[in-house]
Amino acid sequence: MRIAMIGTGYVGLVTGACFSEFGWDVVCVDKDDAKIAKLQAGEIPIFEPGLEDLVATNHKAGRLTFTTDLPAAVDGAQAVFIAVGTPSRRGDGEADLTFVRDVAREIAPLLASYTVVVTKSTVPIGTGKEVAEIIAATAPEADFDMVSNPEFLREGAAIGDFMRPDRVVLGAETERARDVMRHLYRPLYLNATPIIFTSIETAELTKYAANSFLATKITFINEIADLCEKVGANVQDVARGIGLDGRIGAKFLHAGPGYGGSCFPKDTKALVGLAERAGAPMSIVERVVNVNDARPANMVKKIVAACGGSVANKSIAILGLTFKPNTDDMRDAPSVPIIEQLQAQGAKIQAYDPVGMDEAKKTLIDIGWCESAYSAMEGAAVLVIVTEWNEFRALDPTRIATALTTSVIVDLRNIYERKAMEEAGFDYYSVGRAPVLGRLSAAKDTTAIT
Asked: Catalytic annotation on 370?
């Protein structure tokens, strides 16, 4: 089976590489000459564990190729995937469909035989029908069907999510299109993966509903964390206590500085806008958006309080910049507003991230970029953990204490045990748990923090 994947961003590249691993002939096409040249040379433009090897293996086998030639890519393809960007529009925050519409117009005259056109990009409800109308108007003779196939890939675990998904959602309205998609996903059928066929609109809404619900879980536990701090409860114990209920589940119940990334902020705002226009306001999701937008400012207050009420002229070590570990994605990362607000109050920032600093440099300014976690701490008044990279979980407390001018740690991801921090002699502030004033304790233990 031959597939054309239009767009070599995160979704397009991961999806194309994974389909080629299924054994299909995949051509990834992009207008960016430099990006295609790098992909042809084996250079991957994004950080995603396992992706470089997957691309290299299938490119070498001839199943995965890259081109800027759209007609050549579409020629002979049974399925054409639209995986271009749908960034949030300035002003209203809703998805900008410019690229999607452009692709529809460009591929329409190239559909020489029956083709399934698949929207893989996250798009507002009704986009599939709009794309079909554009193609039909541009090339009335085109023989095609539309399908919506939303992606549910977690950055940092995308390949596993594609190869072993919880489900595959396919919005297809003809049996002919459903047959093509069944064949395309045949390897997953053999693994008994749930394949859900719906209408196009239902598939489009399922994506927004899923992300908005997960964002709601994150925001819910963050508000519970705030309450825990007021009443002396422990949010991690609360999360475990409710997460073991099978009706709720433990995932996405981790308190922190708020959600970010390419999906949750964009999709929640888009759903709120869609619901408002449809006359069915999403008051819960709207509240989720507002609470999450305010979350970084609350984290800044925590940091300022840990510094004695002022960060003016103080050096602050920031560990972790990306919105989550195992990615270099800085889109809507909580670190950005946190750092900018600290800088506005006179703080000097020393930052380190294992893979995200090149991307962070495109957004953040006046930062002391460091080569390691320990160099970021050197001379800092406080250590702030913003992203829970694994390498931050076992830092040497002796080296931390030596590097910092005080023994203050603000852990916005709750990656350390309070008891271990107390024994190590730190003043330790986390999220949804009582602070530890370790320097007031006589106990001193310099074993590794776990």
From this structure: no
Sign, Cα dihedral of 387, 391, 396, 402? negative
Q: Looking at beta carbons, which pairs linking 174-181 to residues 24 or more positions away fall under 8 Å?
A: 174/145, 176/114, 176/145, 177/116, 177/145, 177/146, 177/147, 180/78, 180/79, 180/116, 180/145, 181/79, 181/116, 181/118, 181/147, 181/149
370-402 burial, b at 16+ Cβ within 10 Å, e below that, comes to beebbebbbebbbbbbbbbbeebeebbbeebbe
- Are 84 and 6 in contact by the 8 Å Cβ rule? The answer is yes
Cβ atoms of residues 422 and 438 within 8 Å: yes
- Digit-coded pLDDT (tens) for 419-435: 999 999 999 999 999 99
Q: How many CB atoms lie within 10 A of CB 435?
A: 16
Confidence of residue 190 (pLDDT cuts 50, 70, 90): confident
- Please give the radius of gyration of the chain, using alpha carbons only, rounded to the nearest integer: 24
The model's pLDDT over 88-139, given as tens digits with 9 standing for 90+, comes to 777 676 778 999 999 999 999 999 999 999 999 889 999 999 999 999 999 9
Q: Please give the Cα distance from 240 to 250 (Å, whole number).
A: 7
Kind of pairing, strands 64-67 and 25-29?
parallel
CA pair distance 53, 58, nearest whole angstrom: 9
Q: Pick from 2, 1, 23, 50: which is nearest to 13 by CA?
A: 50
Parse the chain into domains and list their residue ranges. 2-198
Residue in 28, 228, 263, 307 annotated catalytic: 263
Round to whole Å and give the CA distance between 37 and 55: 14
| Global pTM value | 0.91
Amino acid letter, 121: S
CB 302 within 8 A of CB 311: no
DSSP-derived letter for residue 153 is: P
The rounded mean pLDDT for the chain is 94
Sign for the pseudo-dihedral over CA of 171, 174, 180, 185 = positive
CATH of the structural domain 2-198, one choice from 3.30.70.330, 3.40.50.720, 3.60.15.10, 3.40.50.300: 3.40.50.720
Count Cβ atoms below 10 Å from residue 33 Cβ, excluding itself: 9
Q: List alpha helices for 249-386, DSSP H.
A: 264-278, 283-306, 335-344, 357-360, 373-377
